Amino acid sequence: MLLEAPGHQGSNKRNMNRNLVKILNCYKAQCASNSPKPCWIRRSTPLPYGINLHGRFLYETGLGETARLLHNALSTQGIDVAIKNIDLKNRPYENDLEHLMSKSLPYNFSMTICGLTALRGIRHQICAQKHNIVFFLWELDKIPSKFVSYLKKFDTIWVPSNFIFQTLREHGFDNVELVKHPIALPSLTPEFFNVTGTLKILFYFDYDSYPKRKNPEAAVHAFKQAFPNGEDVSLTIKTRGTNDQGRRSWLAKQTSNDPRINVIDALLSRNEINALIESHHVFLSLHRSEGLGLGCAEALAAGNAVIATDYGGSTEFIGTRTGFPVAWSPVQVGSEDYILSGDSTWAEPSVDHAAELLRSIYENPMDAKERVKNGYYHLLENHSLSATGFDMVNRLERLRNKNME
């Protein structure tokens, strides 16, 4: 009788354990209920060309909107797309898209849309037979080593801003690609910065999503500094959530002291958010960091002027030609200011400069109108659903040809 060497027996046991984990993941997390499992055992049968999307499709969050926009962009190109919702516990959701959820995820490409903190659980979406892409968003300039290892499990990393791209390159990733984020543009060209009567300014943030990053206090201070004499202006602050840490009462005090400041404290649908943006003239984002800054792009697409900290992902859309970038200074991220902050730094926007920019828009609307027009056409050329969908499908074709070599 032939006996295997002890080392060989240990290797077989490790392989069996790894395969068992992969099989459990297939049944637990990776694919929809009707997907053949595990598909990677049948490698001789190639999977059909197309892309499976894993994302928070049913939730009114930034990542949820990104997932929906990526789906819509890819759908303009005729490529087969299947989608699976990633559950977000204890979060209200919209069920309008439930009928689109796929009962199988059969295609050869799979893309997971997520931020850094979700990688711990979502890494189980990785399938051994498919080419696995992560569309990745993150707001800080450092990534903890454990999460670097999670990201390395993906074959390809797509990121929507040069800010994230440079962060990943500095962490040693050479499989990262800068892919422009799709933006939903109106079917008709908007009236650019069309102000009649009160100049309406919009700012929004979420109490449950580290408001220190969105910086609502700076927005209020800049507004009051810019317009101290009762000018015909208003500031709307849209918020929601439960973890307000005293900010709710602080905002209530601001509104009682200045009737020009209004607070909308509610969960709004996508259509209601769009209507809110369209009813204002200026979008204010004095963020300390953004992975992308989708609100800035949405406001620009609606024909609004955008004032934004000149840091992070918003610089993809907002420069001196397309908007009003705000000067900033680097500061350390506090341990309680944001999750997994480590030794990261972010931007402290200048309230003085933001106030100057608000005042300049009020006093020189024609300049603002010209910048808004430039910004809109920048989005149309680079970030429309058809333009970004075309780019993504071309990238998939190149990956497909490379995988077949």
In short:
The chain has 405 residues and is an alpha/beta fold. 38% of the residues lie in helices and 18% in strands. It is built from 13 helices and 14 strands.
Textual characterization of the structure:
- This protein has 405 residues and is α/β, with parallel strands linked by helices.
- It folds into 2 domains: 46-182 and 385-404, Rossmann fold (3-Layer(aba) Sandwich); 199-382, Glycogen Phosphorylase B (Rossmann fold, 3-Layer(aba) Sandwich), CATH 3.40.50.
- The protein has 13 helices and 14 strands.
- It has a 6-stranded parallel sheet, with helices on both faces. It has a 6-stranded parallel sheet with strand order 9-8-7-10-11-12, sandwiched between helices. Strands 13-14 form a two-stranded antiparallel sheet.
- The relative contact order is 0.12.
Helix/strand class: alpha/beta
- Contiguous helical run count: 13
Proportion in β-strands: 15-25%
CATH class of the largest domain: Alpha Beta
Q: First CA to last CA: what distance?
A: 42 Å
Q: What can be said about the biggest beta sheet?
A: 6 strands, parallel
Strands ordered across the widest β-sheet: 2-1-3-4-5-6
Rounded average pLDDT: 90
